[in-house]
Structure formats: C-alpha cells, structure tokens
Amino acid sequence: MSPSRRSVLRAGSAAALAGALAGCAGGAPDGVGADGRVTIQLWHGQTDTALKVIKSLVADFHRAHPDIRVDLGGGVLADAMLQKVTAALASGAYPDVAFIFGSDLAGIARSPQVVDLTEHVRKGPTPWNSYWPSARDAVTVNGRVRAVPAMVDCLAMVCNKKLFAEAGIDLPEPGWTWAEFTDLARRFTDPGKGRFGTGWPGTGDEDTVWRLWPLIWGAGGEVIAADGKHIGFAEEGVRALDVVRDLVRDRSVYVDPKPGSEQMYKVFLSGRMAMVPTGPWQLPDITQAKLDYHVVPLPTFGGDPVTISGPDTWTVFDNGEARAKAARTFVTWLTQPAQDSRWDVEAGSLPLSRGSEESPAWHAHATGTPGMPVFTEALTSARVRPVHPAYPRISQALGEAIVSVLLGRATPAAAIRTCAEQADAALLIPR
Q: Is Metal-binding tagged as a keyword (predicted)?
C-alpha cells in the first residue's frame, strides 16, 4: 500500500497549483521503438508491500502484452505526486500514467494533457456501472471521466472487544447513533489508566477533516451548496462538531498531534482506546498486535447509514496517440477483477467493482479477515468528497474549525462561522 495510507487522503495543494497547469504543453517522444513496441512511464507512488505487488503485476502485463513496455519510473512517493506531476506538466516532460489522489484530481484535470477517458470506460471490459458509485464519482470531473479508479476504501468503527467484555458492555451494532457513541466513549475513558474512549487526528489536515464528512452528510448537509457559491453545511456542521465538542467535554478523545495518525493508532493497538474510526488498511496492524476486535458501521443521527470513501486514481496523460493508447490498455488491464482482487488482497485495499468483490481471491480473503465484509458492504452507501478545485481550501478551513473545537478554543457554532467565511471566499474565486 502507499505510504501512510491516509496521508493519501490529504487534500494536497491542488488549488494553489492549478494555475500552473492551464498553460502546460509539450510532451515526450512517441515511445515507439524500432521493433514497434511502445514504452510508457508509470509513476506509481507506492512503497514496501504495494511496490512489490505493482512490480509483479507489471511483469504479468508484459507477458500478456509483449508490444507494450511499462517503465516503473518517477521515483516519487504518493504524498509528493501532485507536486511532481505539476512540475512535470509545466516542463513538458510528464509520465503516461500517474497515481493521483482523488482529492487532487480536479486540479490536475484542468491540464489539457490529461486524457479524457469517458468514451473509453463506457466500452471497456469492466462495465462502468460495476464500479462502486464512490469510485465512479471520484474520477468524474464536470461530467467527464478524467481517470480510472486505482483503489477504494471507507471508514467504519473498530472496537476493542476485550475492553468491552471487561466492562460488561455490549458491542455496538449497526444502526447505533452518534449519541450512543459519545456515551460509550465517556464510559470507557479512565485518565488514571491512560485510557480513552476514542481518538481523532488533531493536525487539521485531510486526515482530520474526512472523518467529519459522514456526520455532516448524516445530518443532511453537503460539502458545497447547490448554488456552488457557499458551503452546504452551515447548520449541519454545527451538529457534527457538537459530537466532537461532547468528546472534548468528557475528555474521552485522544487528540493526535502528529500527521499520519500513528500516535492515535498506537494508543488503540496498546489496548488503551475502546473505539477508533478507521479503514481496512489498519486491519493488518491490528491483527499483528493480536488485538481481538469488532468492526461495525459508523454511527448515524438516526437515519440511513453513510460513510466516506477516499478513492485514488490512475490518471492518464497525453504523450501522443501511441503512448496514450498503450496507457489506456495498461490501466484497463490493471483494474480488471483478476488483477484488482490481487492488488486488494496483497496490497491492502477494497475491491474496485462488484466483479472484483465476487472473485474467488477476494472472497477467500474477506471471509478469512474478521470485519472485512463490514467495510466492503459499507461501500454501497459510501460517498466521496466533491471533485472540485476549491475543495482543498474548504478542507483547510474545516480542518482549522475541527482543531479549534478539539482544543477547546471555539464553540462549534463559532468554528463553523469562521469556516464558512473562508470556504465561501474560496468558492467565489473564478475557476
């Protein structure tokens, strides 16, 4: 999997960099060798286990497609991909395929060098409608498909079964509420033992922000209002932050001061936290720590379940028709159920499509991993952040609002008012 998986959720600085993309032009040689074989460059952004998997998949692709060569170049981790690709587009020497965070796609897609894949995906071997709605939404910008899904995930609540058993408290079940969540967090908190009910990242980055969107959506809000000029959570954001305020009031939330949430997860893995909202990427560490756990969908405000998915993308760039055609062939092959299910099992993700979910490899993995089916089922109700150039600035404003409440510096109402002023100003900037 890519480094610190939910640093993959960062909004990045797409808004600040978008202006550099508008005038990008140029490209590399056509990549066609004397023998007719086409070479394409893949900037994969992966490390460790995921890098081994992508290398193995590329080797298989070469055997099945001897007329195409995939060069695993780039040498940049996923966290730095936005800056790397932006600089490459400005210089005119850019890759054919790059791993782009879904939250960065709107800014990157402003470049004319990003290939429009709308017609390609509609006639591809994996039916477009087979992908989860969240995966489709994450690669669609202004009604056009500007990338293909690379990986999907979502949030659910993971509970420490031992702590629940010791306290004689029943494990939560689907349909529980945010009020029940805050009550449980309070009951499990014990300052004397250094134990917390739950945790929340406190750096104000996208890892802090994306955990609040399910509450805002569950309360009836939207990220951006229908008029496109204002945030869509002026009231619903207050209700969502009321939950955060209650956790702070009860001193039941561990606020992680460092990026990446590593400290928060260490507290949970050490047995000093009862519940943590997280994704499937954390299950291997939980299993390795020999922690007996229970996975349950996120709480609600008494309505339908909703979670958030943070799909990332394989974005294709135009280096001439021969290389663009080869790149489309590669990403199409890579996202087929046979390859995708292997990526999901070995690198730690969720299936991109129903076809991948139904594959024997994924089925065996899911049934053998406690809680994994909960994450997969949650994809049916998962939503994504809007693919909008202003999203990074909205996220920054909301991140500051969340931190101000986590640190007791502002009330939910005051925090959202400040957030609205900053985010609305970003939405008024011409695109």
A: no
